[in-house]
Amino acid sequence: QKEVEQNSGPLSVPEGAIASLNCTYSDRVSQSFFWYRQYSGKSPELIMSIYSNGDKEDGRFTAQLNKASQYVSLLIRDSQPSDSATYLCAVRNRDDKIIFGKGTRLHILP
Amino acid sequence: DAGVIQSPRHEVTEMGQEVTLRCKPISGHDYLFWYRQTMMRGLELLIYFNNNVPIDDSGMPEDRFSAKMPNASFSTLKIQPSEPRDSAVYFCASSLGTGELFFGEGSRLTVL
Prior knowledge:
The structure holds 2 protein chains of 2 kinds.
Chain A: E1 4-5, E2 11-14, E3 19-25, E4 32-38, E5 45-50, E6 54-58, E7 61-66, E8 71-76, E9 85-92, E10 98-100, E11 104-109
Parallel strand pairs in A: 2-11
Antiparallel strand pairs in A: 1-3, 3-8, 4-5, 4-9, 6-7, 7-8, 9-10, 9-11
Chain B: E1 5-7, E2 10-13, E3 19-24, E4 31-38, E5 42-50, E6 53-56, E7 65-71, E8 74-79, E9 88-95, E10 102-103, E11 107-111
Parallel strand pairs in B: 2-11
Antiparallel strand pairs in B: 1-3, 3-8, 4-5, 4-9, 5-6, 7-8, 9-10, 9-11
């Protein structure tokens, strides 16, 4: 089993709709969880971090964490064409090791 | 403040040559990570340092790869000898211990 798993996509979402991105992880004692956005040819940039169960909102973005199910998600409301990118889920374990999933390609349809 | 600085941005070399990639982390950050990204394998962790000390190098693919961090403001990743399968984008990232990584622009390596 891979440590951090994501559906590779592409996920196509109409402009203005909600995009839902999902991630599962295998290390039950993982402590911190992150979502990064990566545009083609660019480096990853942090958009959300979440450390405890529940929801965390920042503007149009909401991260959700369920440690019992080992599941992290990212919701993007009012999707814009500029949100088209690859979204990477990352997990930090107790040894401070940070592992990334392979990413989900998101395409917002104008 | 300057972000993470990597050099070179692009490197084209021939199989068997030595390659050295360089990274300057954000001042004050105590963690430094080296990742390799390919289409097939995604973003793979190679090695990370805490306060200049290597913590986990289990991701380094072979003995041909080595990394050093002689001080808090500089790290190198060396490949000797290089092979075509080493072609990838190599990213350096630093963190202040929170796990929130700041990435450099990457070094795109092509080994012919």
